[in-house]
Design a protein that fits this description.
It comes from Arabis alpina (Alpine rock-cress). InterPro entries: FBD (IPR006566), FBL60-like (IPR055294), LRR_dom_sf (IPR032675). The protein is an alpha/beta fold and 173 residues long. The protein has 4 helices and 7 strands, in the order H-E-H-E-E-H-E-H-E-E-E.
Length: 173
């Protein structure tokens, strides 16, 4: 898949049998082909992103926040039409503020998302709790049945987004 994401082509083939996709993020590689790939993967259920860093371009569509859109501008909608139910983000926590904004964007635009799993690269429990709290306070999300899981070396938190009364906390051995 490396070639698919680095080469933006005119016509992306249809991937009817693709149900699981893993993408290794890289600062030197943009996500230009990701909108087309998501659009042409009608049965994609699980998307795994190894990090959220990528080369900022103006051709990522609505997948990322590389390019801010003006209110009157029509935003491409590959995420809102994506069938992805499970989004796993590995190596979360490098540029935390930008990454939190990106995760909020996913939550606000992916209506079929049932589970978001963040593998937070930190040993500080308070950081995990703070990120969980920020994401639970989102005023609107695209999927009312999304379960958020934050996993770090020391702690695992699970809750429903938007915030529900119950929150499960598990200390890891």
């Amino acid at each position: 898949m490396h070639m698919v994401l680095t080469k933006c082509c005119d016509a992306t083939p249809l991937f009817n049998n693709l149900t699981h996709l893993t993408i290794e993020s890289n600062r030197k590689v943009g996500w230009e082909s990701l909108p087309s790939l998501l659009k042409n993967s009608p049965n994609l259920e699980t998307l795994v992103l190894h990090g959220l860093v990528h080369k900022a371009t103006n051709r990522c569509g609505d997948v990322c926040l590389c390019r801010p859109y003006k209110e009157e501008e029509e935003i491409p909608t590959c995420l809102s039409s994506s069938p992805v139910k499970v989004l796993k983000i590995m190596k979360f926590g490098v540029e935390i503020e930008k990454q939190i904004e990106q995760v909020k964007h996913f939550l606000e635009t992916m209506p079929n998302l049932e589970q978001l799993i963040l593998y937070y690269d930190t040993s500080f429990e308070e950081y995990v709790i703070e990120v969980s709290s920020q994401l639970q306070r989102l005023p609107k999300v695209a999927s009312s049945k999304c379960n958020l899981q934050l996993i770090s070396d020391q702690l695992s938190l699970s809750s429903t987004i938007p915030s529900s009364v119950s929150m499960k906390w598990t200390s890891l051995p």
